[in-house]
Amino acid sequence: MRTAEPDLYRDTWVRYLGYANEVGESFRPLVPVPVVWASYGVATAYVTADAIDKGRRAATAHAQDPAKATRVGVAVVDTFVWQSLASVAIPGFTINRLCAASLALLEPLTRWPPPLRRWATTALGLAAIPLIIPPIDRSVDFLMDSSLRKLYGAPGEPPAPH
Predict the structure, then answer these.
(1) What local confidence, expressed as pLDDT, does residue 25 receive?
(2) Sequence-separated (6 or more) residues with CB below 8 Å from residue 64
(3) Taking the model in full, what pTM does it have?
(4) In this predicted structure, what is the pLDDT of residue 68?
(5) 54, 103, 111, 144: which has the fewest Cβ within 10 Å?
(6) Per-residue b/e over 40-61, b at no fewer than 16 CB within 10 Å?
(7) First vs last Cα of the chain: how many Å apart?
(8) Which residues neighbour 13 within 8 Å (Cβ) at sequence distance 6 or greater?
(9) Arithmetic mean of pLDDT, 22-42
């Protein structure tokens, strides 16, 4: 019996590259803004590479299928949109706003010096990452299932004839 090949982008350490922008947003109070932008570059490269990989897998799996191009397109689009929302846009925005709010609130509520407030904000952002990922993933699944996936069915499946 042959076991399934592990997915480089979902089953290995490479998956954590998708969270680079959340880490960047957490460190925003401490690092220059171009470092935060670079973290978005890493996360976007991960999303793009995963989408390309899913397209290649779909092409291999459906090599003899007349709807191969459609299946490949659906796999790439579904992966890219899902990953863009669940790994980059929504978590990045969430951590950005959480850190901005905490930094703004720590000044009037504490007597901590600015460096301590910035480090506390960064620690809060980093601690929040594992807590926000599961609900964001489920929400993006629901959003995609309720919208885009209705156009083409399950990921990798060709659109249903109308």
Answers:
(1) 97
(2) none
(3) 0.86
(4) 80
(5) 111
(6) bebbbebbebbbebbbebbbee
(7) 39
(8) none
(9) 97
Length of the chain: 162
Sequence-ordered list of residues with C-beta below 8 angstroms from that of 86, at least 6 positions apart, any chain: 136, 137, 140
Q: Smallest Cα–Cα separation from 91: which of 60, 125, 54?
A: 125
More confident residue, 19 or 160: 19
The rounded radius of gyration (Å) of the Cα atoms in the chain is: 19
| Alpha carbons 103 and 94: distance in angstroms, whole number | 14
Indicate the pLDDT class of residue 160, thresholds 50, 70 and 90.
very low
Q: Which residue has the tokens 């290995």?
A: 12
CA distance 69 to 24: 36
Q: What is the DSSP letter of 110?
A: -
Q: Which of 90, 19, 92, 94 is nearest to 50 (CA)?
A: 19
Q: Which residues contact 70 (CB under 8 A, 6 or more apart)?
A: 158, 159
Q: Angle CA(141)–CA(147)–CA(151) in degrees, nearest 5?
A: 115
